[in-house]
RCC1/BLIP-II protein
Amino acid sequence: MVAMLVRGARDTVLVAAQRMSAQRVGAQRRWLSQAVAARSKRRLTEYEYDDAEMLRSRLDTEPYYAKRDKEQQRDQDPGYDDEAQGASSPDELRRFRRIEIIKGLAAGVATIGGLMGGYSLYANWPRLQAWWYNTGELGFDSGEPGKKRKRGVELPVLTNQNDSSVPGLYLWGDNTEYITSMNKNAVDVRFPMRHDWFDGKYLSCVELGDTSALAIDTHGDLIQWGRGFNGGSTPEVTIRGEALRSAKFSNGIIYALNKHNEVLIIPESKENQASLAGLQSRNWLLQKVDKPFTKLALAGFDKGETVRSFDVGKSHLVLITDKGRAFTCATGFEQLSKSFGQFGIPQFSHLKTPPKPNKLYEIVLLNQVVHYNSKNKIDHVENRVIEKVACGNNHTMALDSNGELFTFGQNTYGQLAHPVSYETEHISYPKKVDILNKHVKRAMFPEVLDIHAGGDTSFCEVKPVHMYQLVKGSTSQRPQVDDESFVVGFGTALKGQIGNGLFIHAQFDPVRLKELEKFQDFNEATGEMDRIHIKEWSSGEEHSFVKLDNSDVLYWGANDYGQLGTGKKNRIPKPTSPPSLIEPSFTADTYKDLTFANRLQLSENQHIVAGAKASAIYYTPK
């Protein structure tokens, strides 16, 4: 019993001792943690560090001063508050901000002033050098040394004193072929200048080719001049008594339409005219006389069918008859070596031999349209009426009576308004242009009103119309559409030929010539501003002219030979008003007169023509 009591007491003592030991350990741990925390919070004091130890680096290398650094004072001062000392008042912050703004403005002004001063120094460096080295007195308003400054308008010397009221012929552009001037030493003519030989003459047609030019007078006689004709610059009358109405150059041949609606084939050069075994006729003495031309055989024409109009390219001709049928042939006297599909006949595609020259072929796929039934079988064939054709270098455009456009030939630059690819670079059959639909509303039809072509560029005038207006026999009384027509261009515009303000190598998607839509005039009858429409259009190899209803003229395109008549050779990529004709009475002060309208305006009987590398203005009888 006693033993049990002793063991119990011992166990009690041991438990109590263990509890006291644990409490003691816990208290020690709490004390240590509090000491460490207090040690980390309070700052260093001067009693815990030796000053000599802190200032040892200065004592060894620098003179000693009994003064501590501010940073050291802050570290050793237990009452120093970093946040309180670093804070600034609102006034001090505003002052600092103003100072920084003033510094930034001063730096900006100094930078701009330095740039302007540097540019002025660079621009006037030759004058400063001349002044510094005393090589001559040269003011800052003068030009560079040895270089005269142009003042006012530089007018050309007029050798012909007739003004624009006298009928005649104005020419300008390339003169290497003696087309634009009788002065063979003149390389080009950059302003419209009168041709002395034509003074007082009225003309009905003027064409400017690559190597020669032609004109038709009011009697229908043919006049030719240029290096390609006789090697000279003096015009000559070559064809008389044939009553010619129009004529065009193609592949060394002049194709002319007379009053009998016959197409004459006339060699371009005088030498070839003399050697040609042409038609024979009898003079008033009943003597046989050889004529220097032949006539195009109208094979495939119906009885009484005649030629209404025609157009030519570099090596092809396309004509339309009074029945609205289209025919084509190769031009020149020699067999062509290559075809581009410009004939519109698959058997004369670019992969096959071109047709024989001056032999007409009907463009059947253009003249006829095939209608299919519900079973996709041929129901019937209907004749299509062709209203107009236009030819570029190696492509053809055709407009039918429904306002639909068809193109065929070379498509390297997108001049057919079809996407350019290996398969569509040459299209040898008439293909309808459907891409014009994107330029009109969904319920509208893009009716083509007119077409033009020059070089490798094409143009067409489009007017949106309602679909119901195209239904034959429609008696609907709904109002007509008020949308204005617009002009689109496609093809090459590397020299600004399209007229949309851009220089593009190839453009198959038609683009609008918006500059032509900006010209307006006040209509006194309606009291509103009406758009001025195009009255005449002429496209050359790489430039174009239009004459508006208000007699203003616009031009655009290439100007490598001065064919735009601006006095310079800069290209103009959008329709622009050319300067007025230079009259003999003009002086430099004329252009300073604020009432002088320096823009070209033509009268009713004045017409402007764009040629291969030159341009002309001629007069027709009133």
Observations:
- The chain has a mean pLDDT of 84.
